[in-house]
Amino acid sequence: MLESLITSKTRLRLLVKFFVNSKTHSHLRGLADEFGESTNAIRKELNNLTQAGILERHTDKNKIEYQANVQHPFFKNIQDIIRKYLGLDKLLEQILERMGEVHQVVLVGDIAKGIDSGKIDVLVSGESLNSDYINHLTTRVEDLIDRKVVFTLLGERITSPGLVLFDKEAGV
Q1: What is the DSSP letter of 113?
Q2: Are 107 and 113 a contacting pair, CB within 8 Å?
C-alpha cells in the first residue's frame, strides 16, 4: 500500500533503512551495494531527503554518512508509518495479546539494521511464556504481515543488540 504513495522504490528502501531503527547510519557506496542500485539513483534520493530535512549528513573521515533526523517534526510520524508498513505494530500486538508475561520484545537480524529482507527475527523474553501459542502465532503473523517471522523465546532479559519494540521495565 505504501508503494502507491511513495512511487520511488529507492526512496522507500531508504526510508525503511533509516526509520525502522533511528540509530542506523550508512554511506552512499554501502547503500548502493546493499540495494544493488547505482550510486546516482541513491545519491539523488539522499539529496532530496537531506534537503527536506528528513535525513542528516555527517562527515566521517572521507565519507559522508546519512541517518534519520530525529529532530525533524515528522520523524515520529514517518517512523510509525514505516513500522506499520513492515507490520511491526501488528507483530507486537499479537505477541503481547496472549504470549504470557512478556518483559521484552527485541528485533534482531536484518530488520534491526533497516534491511527489509522479508524475514523478521524476534526475541521475546518473559516469564511463563506460552510456547504452545508460538506455532499458531508464527503462522498468523506471517499471514498478517506477509513476511517470514522467526521467534526465539528466552527466560532471561535480552542483552544482545537489536531494536527494542517493547520493554516492560523501561516503559517502551
Answers
A1: G
A2: no
